[in-house]
Design a protein that fits this description.
379 residues, Beta-galactosidase, Chain A, domain 5, 5-stranded antiparallel sheet
Length: 379
């Protein structure tokens, strides 16, 4: 696994600009690549010499933009556009009838387009603001012209501020927190309509997978439907040895080992406002926090002609099979955006990484997810 500094040097050798967000040299830091749609390419808990646990695919970066289907650059956080599949999906060309991997493609308009940098003026700071414009069409041919800005800022341990009276007593606990604010503005002269397709802000983080890594997703009991969608790539669902749904305690565990292509999703009726992962081998806990608008529609990304295009997921996790790379993803989305011309919407996402002893992290996970997580789980 490459270090933070090695990742930075590699991107520089490929001719890509970088911005480092940090406070002190020995603390956690982020590496942003404005030329790759302002994605975070490296995350370190202990300065530039520490390992980067964000997934990076060097071959894709070296051949930047040359794969007509998908340039899998990687990155510990990126924004995309939802929905992916269905009649309103933006990851299939207009007129698509068979939603399969051969027809799927990811446009560089929202995957690797360079962003202008408003700040910092130098190559380092504690916050960055970047932006550009992009244009995409969905499967039925509707075109969207969108202005997008990305603001990424280092933040304190806000999860512990409100949920633990003993936040200063955590033994040997390192923390890195940051806030991502992604804003879409409708630059078209027409409003976005349900009948011709709506978009969502889709946030994804790619992390290095491990044999003892699993996703933790608490869920709510607000509906009568299925708790989790697990049929994205597995018609019969995901086997019990890879997905455990603990209905009594209200959480699920999903194996993140890059051994089987699979994906889970939680709808607006079942999703919690947090999702995360535990890397037991690296003693690393990751927690995402985001808003949910339960009264609003969410776009559906299933690869099919959809009967319910606005009954999609709020949060997801994807596990690769090693063909794209040794990674898994945490994901969350805004509600479906019906923006008028000139109207904007901003989607905030807090990400917190913690490193400490196994017992400390398991205890912390119980507090932050508000569930008693089985210590055995999938590991």
């Amino acid at each position: 696994m490459a270090t933070f500094e090695q990742t930075k040097q590699f991107l520089a050798s490929a001719g890509l600009r970088t911005i480092t967000l940090k406070r002190e040299a020995s603390e956690g830091c982020l590496l942003i690549a404005p030329d790759l749609s302002a994605r975070i390419m490296a995350v370190s808990m202990d300065g530039a010499a520490d390992e980067n646990f964000g997934f990076v695919k060097p071959e894709a970066i070296a051949n930047r933009g040359k794969d007509p289907q998908f340039n899998a650059y990687g990155g510990a956080l990126r924004w995309w556009v939802g929905p992916e599949g269905g009649q309103y999906g933006v990851a299939f060309p207009p007129g698509t009838e068979n939603f399969d991997l051969n027809s799927w493609y990811i446009s560089e308009e929202y995957n690797g387009k360079p962003f202008a940098v408003a700040y910092p003026q130098q190559e380092a700071g504690t916050s960055a603001l970047m932006g550009t414009e992009f244009s995409v069409r969905n499967t039925i041919g509707t075109r969207f012209n969108i202005g997008v800005t990305s603001r990424i800022s280092l933040i304190g341990n806000s999860l512990m501020n409100s949920r633990s009276k003993n936040k200063n007593r955590q033994p040997r606990l390192k923390h890195l927190g940051y806030l991502s604010e992604t804003t879409f503005e409708n630059l078209s002269s027409e409003p976005m309509r349900k009948e011709t397709g709506l978009l969502s802000i889709w946030m994804l983080g790619m992390y290095v997978a491990g044999q003892r890594t699993y996703v933790i997703a608490p869920f709510e009991r607000r509906g009568i439907g299925r708790i989790v969608t697990d049929t994205y790539f597995n018609a019969g669902g995901i086997g019990g040895n890879r997905l455990i749904v603990n209905e009594k305690s209200g959480y699920l565990l999903f194996r993140a080992d890059a051994k089987e292509r699979s994906k889970i999703g939680l709808s607006r009726s079942s999703a919690s406002s947090v999702i995360g992962s535990m890397d037991v081998s690296r003693n690393l806990l990751t927690v995402w926090r985001f808003p949910i608008r339960r009264s609003m529609p969410y776009v559906n990304s299933l690869w099919e002609q959809q009967k319910r295009p606005y009954a999609g997921d709020v949060s997801n996790s994807y596990n690769d099979d090693g063909k794209f790379g040794n990674f898994y993803e945490l994901e969350c989305s805004s509600h479906a955006l019906a923006l008028k011309p000139g109207e904007r919407f901003s989607f905030p996402l807090e990400i917190h990484h913690y490193r400490g002893s196994g017992e400390t992290l398991h205890s912390l996970a119980d507090k932050l997810f508000r569930r008693r997580i089985d210590r055995g789980g999938l590991c």
